[in-house]
Amino acid sequence: MEKKGTKKMNRRHGTAFAIVLALVFTFFTPAGAPRAASVTKEITTNKACVDRLQNADDEKIYTFTVGTSGYFTISFGKLHEEDDAQFGWDLELCTESGKVLRAWDKVKEKQTTGRFDFKKGTKLCIRVKADWNGDFYAPVGVAYSLKVAAYDSDKWEQEDNNDMQNATLLRAGSAGKLGTLWNETDVDWYAYTVDQAGYFRIRLVNLSTTELGHGWNVSLHDSKGKMLKKWKNIRSGETSIKLNYKKGTQLFLKVEAAMDSESFAPVDKQYKILVISKADSSWEQESRDNNKNDNTITVGKTVHGTMISEKDRDNYTVVADKAGLLRITLSNAYPNKELGYGWNLQICDTKGRVLKESKKIRTKQTIGVTVKKGTACVVKVSPNWESESFAPIDDIYLLKAVIK
Predict the structure, then answer these.
(1) How far apart are CA 330 and CA 381, in angstroms?
(2) Residue 153 contacts by C-beta under 8 Å, 6 or more apart in sequence?
(3) CATH tag, 2-151
(4) 193: buried, middle or exposed (CB in 10 Å: 19+, 13-18, 0-12)?
(5) What are the extents of the domains in the chain?
(6) Is the pLDDT of residue 316 over 80?
(7) Is the per-residue pLDDT at 15 higher than 70?
(8) Helices (H) and strands (E) in the chain, counts
(9) Which CATH number fits the domain 295-403, given the four candidates 1.10.630.10, 3.30.565.10, 1.10.8.60, 2.60.120.380?
(10) Which of 91, 84, 129 is nearest to 109 (CA)?
(11) pLDDT at 27 exceeding the cut of 50
């Protein structure tokens, strides 16, 4: 269907002849003239409604209730192919309160919209009127067919999920959720609670075969709405780096158009979003509080970690199982990868006093302090430079403690 926004352009460049002809025949309704009273009718999904406009200024409003948990499409067009629909009809999909969600201009031949996935029980309406408010060009008396086809499915996001409070639930290990942006400003929110200790990845897959414009942006937020990560201009499909938040942490994902312009947004383009998680006890578990010592290091074992942002701090507690020299080794899991200014490594006592440290570690470094059996120390890993351009964000490090 032709989208809203083209009508003004078409009218602006309409021929003077057409306007004069309309005036001569006095079929033209003066600008600003009120339309006749709207006629409201309730329709049933999956059943065609045949109707017509009796006058050029008629307006028909069809109400319906979303009856499934999947999605619906709207099919509209003239009933008989041989009929002349003149300038055609304008359609608007609206909320119960009248807010316009989508609009189409100059619809003549039968066409079907993209998929709309509103929550079951949502009340919506479709407004139909002549594209040209004058009898000479309006499809007066021309029969049209309107049908809302509903499909039941638990695989789809459920609108209106434009904020965190109405986010669609996303579970790791499932097939994910299908979604679509029904206009350039639409936003889809998803809620995910970390289901196991280890790490997870976020994947957005493009299921459309047509041009996407600038694609989608996906961002990760904490339960207070603070943005933690963002991936931009996804067009084909993208899997995030390993994210290692603590089990039970509630997170939110936001999907939006990379550019909120009708010409460049992926409107009506279908995507799939899913979370892939893996249990792994060797990974540190991120906390929202950088001052907490939430992770422990068992002497002799290796821990994996990463900096979520340039301000991230990873704190570990290690307890000496014997007296000797406690040696902490920090190494780059991918030593050939550029790390900017690398990591800083500190060994501190439980009061926060620094006992030993090393800075700008890019490949591998070991530091050590003498300890007694049962001594607790705090090991701190941080970016050497608090700059997004120079911090080792998303780069994996290995941390190991030994006592000799």
Answers:
(1) 9
(2) 68, 69, 70, 71, 178
(3) 2.60.120.380
(4) middle
(5) 2-151, 164-279, 295-403
(6) yes
(7) no
(8) 2, 28
(9) 2.60.120.380
(10) 84
(11) no
